[in-house]
């Protein structure tokens, strides 16, 4: 019996707005971060994920004030990422109220940062974000919010990140992101077979049927959603009800944040 599925509301933040694009480009504003996080919390989100999508380019730190608000109003685990370059960045985000920190670009540029952060803050606080694009018969890891290819195999990088101390992976299929075609089950299955730490599936998830397919075909039990919640009229409470109707357990509020 698989663990209860963990549903994560993902908010990609640019300046003072939550945005959503297609394949991580062509961004459109979808709302205010504080209002959306309260809405998703009230709907039953198991976790929230905030990503500052321009921090790596412009050295912005928009998340600290938002995290301080969340720490007073939101009572599920919160992950923050975007532009994380150093131990000081980890410390600042955790001190502001984040429970976990997501790192992508700098993890690939300075892989030793993964282990240092894991030893200092605990591996449960370190999420390595992997943005993957299909290239022939394999997937390539990208950085800078999917703007830059790295030449590194995404699955090999996932295994290395686990070995270096990551407690969790956030795997986003770039080609599926925001286009409404469903998740990349091949990518997710490869990741599930390659590592033992929890993998959060992201990119293209449209609702309960897609989540059920992820759980049933890959064994993963954590899913991050953006467009489905921001633009497509889906609610987390309705998604949970649909999953329960299919025999897939979801997390009650008092279990939010427990390990998979």
Describe this structure in words.
It is a single chain. The protein has 260 residues and is an alpha/beta fold. It has one domain: TIM Barrel. It has eleven helices and twelve strands. The chain has an eight-stranded parallel β-barrel with strand order 1-4-5-6-7-10-11-12, surrounded by seven helices. The longest helix has 11 residues. It is globular and about 45 Å long. The two termini are 12 Å apart. The C terminus is likely disordered. InterPro entries: Aldolase_TIM, His_biosynth, HisF, IGPS_HisA/HisF, RibuloseP-bd_barrel. Pathway: Amino-acid biosynthesis; L-histidine biosynthesis; L-histidine from 5-phospho-alpha-D-ribose 1-diphosphate: step 5/9. One of its GO terms (molecular function) is lyase activity.
Major pleated sheet: 8 strands, parallel, barrel
Low-confidence stretches: 254-260
Annotation, overall tally of beta strands = 12
- How much helix, percentage-wise, in residues? 25-40%
CATH level 3 topology: TIM Barrel
**CATH arch. level architecture:** Alpha-Beta Barrel
Structural class: alpha/beta
Q: What coarse outline follows from CA principal-axis ratios?
A: globular
What percent of residues are in strands?
Answer: 25-35%
Distance between the termini: 12 Å
Compute the CA-based radius of gyration. Answer: 16 Å
Number of individual domains: 1
The side-by-side strand order for the widest beta sheet comes to 1-4-5-6-7-10-11-12
């Amino acid at each position: 019996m698989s663990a209860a599925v963990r549903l994560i509301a993902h908010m990609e933040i640019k300046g003072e707005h939550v945005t959503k694009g297609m394949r991580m480009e062509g961004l459109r504003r979808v709302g205010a971060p504080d209002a959306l996080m309260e809405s998703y919390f009230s709907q039953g989100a198991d976790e929230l994920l905030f990503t500052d999508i321009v921090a790596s380019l412009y050295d912005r730190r928009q998340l600290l004030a938002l995290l301080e608000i969340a720490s007073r109003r939101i009572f599920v685990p919160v992950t923050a990422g975007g532009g994380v370059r150093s131990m000081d960045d980890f410390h600042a985000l955790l001190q502001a109220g984040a429970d976990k920190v997501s790192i992508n670009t700098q993890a690939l540029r300075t892989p030793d940062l993964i282990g240092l952060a894991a030893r200092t803050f605990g591996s449960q606080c370190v999420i390595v974000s992997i943005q993957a694009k299909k290239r022939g018969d394999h997937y390539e890891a990208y950085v800078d919010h999917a703007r830059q290819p790295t030449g590194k195999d995404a699955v090999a990088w996932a295994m290395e990140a686990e070995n270096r101390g990551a407690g969790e992976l956030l795997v986003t299929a770039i080609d599926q992101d925001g286009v409404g075609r469903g998740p990349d089950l091949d990518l997710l299955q490869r990741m599930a077979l390659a590592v033992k730490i929890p993998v959060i599936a992201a990119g293209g998830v449209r609702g309960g049927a897609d989540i059920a397919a992820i759980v049933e075909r890959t064994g993963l039990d954590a899913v991050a959603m953006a467009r489905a919640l921001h633009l497509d009229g889906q609610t987390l409470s309705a998604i949970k009800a649909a999953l329960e109707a299919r025999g897939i357990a979801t997390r009650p509020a008092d279990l939010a944040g427990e390990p998979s």
